[in-house]
Amino acid sequence: MAMGMLKRSLRYRITGKNAHWLQDIRVKNVSIFNRVDFMLDQCLNKNVLHIGFSDAPFTIQKIKDGTLLHLQLQKVAKSLLGLDNNETAISQYCQETKDDAILSGDILTQYPAAAVAFNPEIILLSEVLEHLDNPKNAVDILYDSFCHGTLIIVTVPNYTALDSFASSLNKTEGIHPDHHWYFSPYTLGKLFDEKKFLMHELHFGMYYLQHTKINSVLKQYPFSGDCIMAIFSIIKNAAL
Questions:
Q1: What is the per-residue pLDDT for 239?
Q2: What is the C-alpha R_g of the chain?
Q3: Domain 30-234 sits in which CATH superfamily?
Q4: What's the mean per-residue pLDDT of the chain?
Q5: Residue 3's pLDDT is what?
Q6: DSSP of 26-77, one letter per residue?
Q7: Does the pLDDT of residue 26 top 90, yes or no?
Q8: Residue 10 has what pLDDT?
Q9: How far is residue 65's CA from residue 72's CA, in Å, rounded to a whole number?
């Protein structure tokens, strides 16, 4: 009820001359999901390149409590290759799991040859772009490195998340100290240029543990989710 009253009371802010600034979403059927469940469903029986797989600095903690996404992906993906630039976290992961299907590399410079040769069906770029000082450079290098039709699943923090709104009302900001950016559906679409990437789906997600259900309020107001989740594919001239 409170959300409905707030929506009605602020309607005037997006009407009249202010309507000029409203932007349409590039895809239809926008919904909200549990972020972990959504990614696992999309990666089922696929060859997946997982960027930022170590989730530093929480690598050991998440391995021990079973919440490290990479370990959950191992249970559903056809094949899985991890890529990260944090040498300490990579070493910790290898020591704890004995898994050697991982690579070290910096996506702001170039992808390792082994990552390109892996020829992934899906590149999972989850909660990574907000940590980069130049996400556009990372997206350009990704485009140049992989072939036409490769799917990219992206998740990034949502600028209208309920936590962000609650913080602003209390004259503060709730944000990871390593983040450089927030995103919106429009700005994420600008980052993944529609001349180079086709957007197949766009949804919102919650940072819930696996199998946690979305509550009714968030289902009604999906744009208040914790993160934005999008699926793109690379578009290249077939002759290249």
A1: 41
A2: 19
A3: Vaccinia Virus protein VP39 (3.40.50.150)
A4: 92
A5: 73
A6: SSS---EEEHHHHHHHHTTTSEEEEETTT-TTSHHHHHHHT--HHHHHHTT-
A7: no
A8: 65
A9: 12
